[in-house]
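Example for tutorial group B:
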């Protein structure tokens, strides 16, 4: 297991392992834990139902925590133990503040956090107040450069949401808002001055509001709790194994917690996909530089891991690779590594091309099972992906997943798969507005606030959850009648009264001409 090469007397060495990209992360992790290859002096004992009870496993998300529990149970079943076992304490990095044993009772200020809805509404009010003051100050020098500012509560809410996202990012990275004052020179463009003036909502008004209300920002509290947990672990190391797995430490507080875990007597950090085969020149090109002009591009997939290893004081060559050899997987990783090589070292592509031409690099292994599909449009792309996922069901034991940052494509594929009666487990979740209850609430709002516009009313009447106190079949039949009688003629006057008047007039016309139908 990797350990820091030059630990000080007061700073124990860090223990670090990695699981190659392309390997099943959790099964590999759990297998190494059971075999005793992960934590010193620990091996799973099938005869002891409480063998895992003292283990603490930290993972990036709650979804990962559920998957880790399933992986442990699958590993127990695979080994044929056939006994009940107590699961480890599995929790996401951000939820460590819920554990009194890890955090302690007096480690953190217990000021209540502001509720998400209250935070959003308060920021919206502050945004509207700021724009109103600036718009009214006709003599202010910034009004000449003032862009289009929010003119409605809906626009103010969107701007407040963007401001809240920025606040969370700044708090997550541990950046001091005070540095904002020196970021833009006084003689810079007025647009930059306007931005800095707008951010005074965060730097001046928001802290005063929290102090007056006796509340704390939730993001700041969460990261403070993670740091407090790290200090608690350093001061009082747990007796059982502690594993921090699957995180790149991109958030400073999480990196601090990983550092604390990796230095515990029975702790280990397990990194996801560290490229131990990347040549030294390319690895050195990722080294953070003090000069911003020479700073490497942080979008490289290994950049975050490089920063974390530097923080841990561990050399890449000392990181232990978990899992056995994988010829095809190794070839694919090498190909991807070359494709994403830092620009400063792309001269190495000549040697890689020579390795392909001479057969020294097995390109067939790297591309085995890989297919390229060129779709004419997004709809065809979604259908093709859905058919590929559906085809996997025809092969016993096969698994399939769609990995995409395009949420529109994900929704299209899910809709196509629904034709086969397949419900997709989307790891990104579903927006409330895209669920049946959320769509019903949205339609009610559109009808109430939109003056009972006919299209909104017809959509509400046809929604499967809109029952209006009746059985589903009766509600759909009556909704269809209302649409045919009142919504397919002249546009009713705004409001519910206008719809009722249009309905009465249509009924009166039908009664006057009984030989005609509403259709």
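The residue assignment follows.
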């Amino acid at each position: 297991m990797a350990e820091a090469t030059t630990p000080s007397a007061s700073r124990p060495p860090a223990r670090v392992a990695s699981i190659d990209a392309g390997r099943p992360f959790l099964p590999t992790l759990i297998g190494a834990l059971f075999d005793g290859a992960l934590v010193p002096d620990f091996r799973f004992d099938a005869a002891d139902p409480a063998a895992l009870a003292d283990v603490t496993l930290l993972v990036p998300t709650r979804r990962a925590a559920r998957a880790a529990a399933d992986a442990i149970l699958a590993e127990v079943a695979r080994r044929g133990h056939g006994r009940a076992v107590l699961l480890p304490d599995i929790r996401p990095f951000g939820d460590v503040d819920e554990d009194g044993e890890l955090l302690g009772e007096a480690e953190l200020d217990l000021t209540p956090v502001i509720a998400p809805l209250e935070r959003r509404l308060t920021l919206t009010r502050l945004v509207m107040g700021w724009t109103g003051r600036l718009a009214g100050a006709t003599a202010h020098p910034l009004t000449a450069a003032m862009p289009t500012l929010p003119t409605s509560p809906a626009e103010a809410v969107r701007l407040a949401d963007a401001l809240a996202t920025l606040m969370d990012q700044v708090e997550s990275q541990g950046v001091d808002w005070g540095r904002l004052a020196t970021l833009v020179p006084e003689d810079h463009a007025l647009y930059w001055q306007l931005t800095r003036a707008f951010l005074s909502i965060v730097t001046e008004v928001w802290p005063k509001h929290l102090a007056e209300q006796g509340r704390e920002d939730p993001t700041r509290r969460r990261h403070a709790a993670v740091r407090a947990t790290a200090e608690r672990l350093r001061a009082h190391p747990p007796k059982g194994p502690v594993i921090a797995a699957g995180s790149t430490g991109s958030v400073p507080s999480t990196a601090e917690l990983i550092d604390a875990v990796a230095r515990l007597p029975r702790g280990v950090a397990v990194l996801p996909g560290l490229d131990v085969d990347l040549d030294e020149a390319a690895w050195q090109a990722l080294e953070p530089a003090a000069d911003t002009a020479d700073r490497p591009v942080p979008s490289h997939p290994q950049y975050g891991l490089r920063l974390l290893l530097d923080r841990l004081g561990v050399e890449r060559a000392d990181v232990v690779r978990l899992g056995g050899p994988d010829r095809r997987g190794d070839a694919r990783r090498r190909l991807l590594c070359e494709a994403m090589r830092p620009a400063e070292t792309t001269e190495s592509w000549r040697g890689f091309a020579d390795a392909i031409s001479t057969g020294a690099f097995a390109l067939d292994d790297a591309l085995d099972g890989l297919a390229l599909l060129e779709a004419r449009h997004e709809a065809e792309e979604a259908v093709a992906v859905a058919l590929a996922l559906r085809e996997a069901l025809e092969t016993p034991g096969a698994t399939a997943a769609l990995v995409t940052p395009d949420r529109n494509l994900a929704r299209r594929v899910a809709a196509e798969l629904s034709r086969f009666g397949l419900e997709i487990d989307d790891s990104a979740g579903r927006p409330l507005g895209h669920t049946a209850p959320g769509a019903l609430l949205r339609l009610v709002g559109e009808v109430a606030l939109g003056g009972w516009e006919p299209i909104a009313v017809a959509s509400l009447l046809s929604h499967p959850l809109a029952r209006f106190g009746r059985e589903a079949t009766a509600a759909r039949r009556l909704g269809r009648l209302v649409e045919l009688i009142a919504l397919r003629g002249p546009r009713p006057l705004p409001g519910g009264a206008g719809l009722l008047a249009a309905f009465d007039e249509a009924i009166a016309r039908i009664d006057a001409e009984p030989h005609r139908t509403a259709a």
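Residues 378-430 form one domain. Compare this with the pattern of hydrophobic and polar residues in the output above.
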